[in-house]
Amino acid sequence: MQQREQKLYEELGELARFVERAMKTISEASPGILSSSTQLPTASGHLSDLNKMTEEGTLEVMRLTELIQDNRDRIAKDLSAVVETLQAMDCVKLTERLERVKTVMGEDGKHLTEIMTALSFQDLVAQRVKKLVTILDDVQSKLVELVVIFGIQHNGESTSAEGTAGHLLKQLEESKKTAMKQQVADDILAQFGFK
Amino acid sequence: MPADPNMKILVVDDMVTMRRIVKNILKQLGFANVDEAENGQDALQKLRGDAYGFVVSDWNMPVMTGIDMLRAIRGDEKLKAIPVLMVTAEAQQSNLVEAVQAGVSNYIVKPFTAETMQEKLGKIFK
Predict the structure, then answer these.
(1) Of A58, A78, A72, which Cα lies nearest the Cα of A111?
(2) What is the pTM assigned to this prediction?
(3) What is the pLDDT averaged over residues A111-130?
(4) Using the beta-carbon criterion (under 8 Å), do A117 and B112 form an inter-chain contact?
(5) Mean pLDDT for each consecutive 10-residue tract of chain B (126 residues)?
(6) Rounded to an integer, what distance in angstroms lies between the CA atom of residue B85 and that of residue A155?
């Protein structure tokens, strides 16, 4: 009986030491956990911005491509009318040359459609980014849970700017604030005598 | 039955870029009467309010997914005969099987080309 009690105390002692070690490890990792949990919302915000930027760029390329397509269609119609007139006038050589132009324009029309379909990359990118943002949000809420469960305390110093991730996020944030519009650049250039 | 170039087509996708791409390809293929919807629910409302001859739909959309919309179309006496083409990034075999079981008319995996769209249209309206 005494032996069994002795064994039980030893096991409990080992368990207590394990819990202490685990608490120490978590405590050592706490600045990193705090830092990550504060960085994640900013990182997912940048990912959402990225989505918006690719969408705006894609829509502009589409707008211009559609303009070229419309112009090409108008030219193709006019060209067909000219070819018909020339055929009626028996201008064989000129008709042949214009037929070749029509063929090239037809090929360009195909290329323009290919440009449009190639832009579907934006939809695939956006879907993946959305999934990543959801994952980041989930990780962040789990980190917050960890912080609450283990009562990790903020030591007063800023942890969000620590490490490579913090440095990169800081750069991204600053680039948002400091990015210069062309008008501002032109104003400054004008002050230096550029016209 | 060959496709009527004047038939009204509904393009369903939550991404404005994809709707524009599909519309553009359809226009190049001679179909200019194209309307848009942002999700399955929006699409069903439009389908019930007008006469559409063809639906091109994404799978993943908020509010109502493409597969749920497809099931609703096939379960609606007035709409069930409308051909539905799925254009989606859901490239798992299980997705395709699910769509076929739900009554899809054909299936395109993104990214795709105008030729693929033309081929699928040819198969649906032969």
Answers:
(1) A72
(2) 0.74
(3) 90
(4) yes
(5) 88 94 93 96 96 95 95 96 91 85 91 89 90
(6) 58
Question: How many whole angstroms separate alpha carbon A36 and alpha carbon A58?
Answer: 32
The DSSP-derived string for A161-184 is T-HHHHHHHHHHHHHHHHPPPHHH
Can you list the positions of beta strands (E) in chain B? 9-12, 34-37, 54-57, 84-88, 106-109
A108 min Cα distance to partner chain B (Å): 13
Nearest-CA distance from B76 to chain A in Å? 30
Which residues are registered as beta bridge partners of A133?
A: none
Cβ separation A117–B28 shorter than 8 A: no
pLDDT at A158: 47
| Structure-block tokens of residue B49 | 């309010």
Indicate the DSSP class of residue B9: E
Domain boundaries in chain A? 2-160
Cα–Cα distance measured from residue B80 to residue B47, given in angstroms and rounded to the nearest whole number: 11
Q: What pLDDT shows up at residue A124? A: 87
Identify whether the C-beta of residue B114 lies closer than 8 Å to the C-beta of residue A114. Answer: yes
SS3 percent helix, strand, coil of chain B, rounded to 5, is 40, 15, 40
> How many CA atoms within 13 Å lie on the side-chain side of B25?
25
**Closest CA–CA distance from residue A100 to any residue of chain B (Å):** 21
Q: How high is the mean pLDDT of chain A?
A: 82
Give which of B121, B10, B110, B115 is closest to B60, Cα–Cα.
B110
Does A55 touch chain B if contact means CB atoms closer than 8 Å? yes
Mean pLDDT of A64-81: 94
What pLDDT score was predicted for residue A46?
A: 87
- Kindly state whether A127 is in contact with chain B, defined as any CB-CB distance less than 8 angstroms: yes
Backbone angles phi, psi at A63, to 5 degrees: -60, -45
Instruction: List domains and CATH numbers for chain B.
Output: 9-124 (3.40.50.2300)
